[in-house]
Amino acid sequence: MKRTTLTMNEEYKYKVIKNVVENNGNKKKAAIKLDCTERTVNRLIIKYKEHGKDGFIHGNCGRMPSITFPLDIRNKIIKLYIDDYSDANVEHFAEIVCEDLGIDISSHTILNWLLEEEVLSPKARKKTRKELSRKLNQRLLQASSKKESNSIKEAISMIDEKDAHPRRPRSKYQGERIQMDASSYHWINGETWHLHVAVDDATGEIVGASFDTQETLNGYYCCLYQILTNYGIPALFYTDRRTVFEYKRKNSLMDDDDTFTQFSYACHQLGIEIKTTSVAQAKGRVERLNQTLQSRLPVELRRANVKTIEQANEFLNSYLKKFNDQFALRLNSTKSVFEQQPSKEKINIILAILSERKIDAGHCIKYKNRYYIPVDKNGNRSFFMKGTSCLVIKAFDGSLYISVNDTVYAAHLIEDHEAFSREFDEAPKKKEKKEKYIPPQNHPWRFFAFSKFKSTMPHRAAH
User: Fold this and answer.
1) Tens digit of pLDDT for each residue in 216-245?
2) DSSP string covering 36-80
3) Which of 18, 145, 294, 372 is most buried, most CB within 10 Å of its CB?
4) CB 227 within 8 Å of CB 198
5) Distances, alpha carbon 450 to alpha carbons 34, 100, 251, 296, 444, in Å
6) pLDDT in tens, 354-391
7) Which residues are CB-contacts of 266 (< 8 A; sequence separation ≥ 6)?
């Protein structure tokens, strides 16, 4: 015989109606007890007479809601997260499920499924972590074997809590303050790169980003190039006090001397102020951005099948637009204080890397283990005495120039072997001699001007 199980409220309703039918109870009193009308009591009496106790079971009991996902879909999504996207936060994973599987599902539903399976998102909040830790500790007390106990202890140890950055108001205007930093992370499997990022403090928009193998001057120059070409000249950079934003350590083997001075001098030429801090919380906007990118970007790089750092930088071009459209603030009242973009020729010369050299006995300088000789715009070689001081200027596009006595020359590479033999090779066709481009004499990297700027900068101790 089938046993009928009722809820507490259904059981109470059944007993009241049963008393009315079998003991000639008062319908008005029954209506007051059930907080309903006498007409409803009459309908319940009919149900009791026709179906007995079964008539009080709710019609939807045992029926799956129409919006419920089938069990196979649920298991498929959970398995996909555990196998392929366990490093993605739940909100990001819900977007991936919608894009790849065409299933529109809320992140809250996925989160509940994962918690039922005791799977934690890398971005889970403190409350969620504590709740899961409490459940695991209860299971630990009931563990029946040492193997099960060790497995639960390992799961508990993986639940950690992360401190949040203190809040502070955003800047009023776009371009008023740009926060910059580099984040070292395993962006793809087996590779640790540094992602240089620049974020606008007013809107949270990523205005520049570039991958490099280390935190380098070139990485920050790439960010600055993107800012100058896409937005204009900002008012201030807010950075940390490490690497390229500090003087190099004494006896350092770095080839590019005083990288902080060079970046600072480039900003000085553009009228950009630089402020540095050793407190990470002071530039919490970019620190929080790094956490978001570390959560989302490796997953997107994997989905795009990115294998090299060149492919990663190419991928950033499209990804930043998508990221900014989703997360950056779009306030019509936010005024931009970016100044007008300089010309590309000016940017190319300003974002240069400078190295001091001396002319050798062969009238050449040695740079990156190769020899170069100064030539004028007509391609004629210029000869200087041994020991003459000069500057090697590597422009942003990779072009090399040599500045001697504040006169700029093109750097002509001296090959290890002749490309043509007059004795044994046919004479090549004469090519039309093109005039070499040489920056004008008012370029920013004049030796005297740079030395004067360098001498006025306060010494910074290495941290």
Assistant:
1) 888 999 999 999 999 999 999 998 876 555
2) S-HHHHHHHHHHHHHHGGGGGS-TTTTPPPTTPPPHHHHHHHHHH
3) 372
4) yes
5) 90, 54, 21, 42, 8
6) 888 999 999 999 998 899 999 988 888 999 999 998 88
7) 221, 224, 350, 351, 352, 444
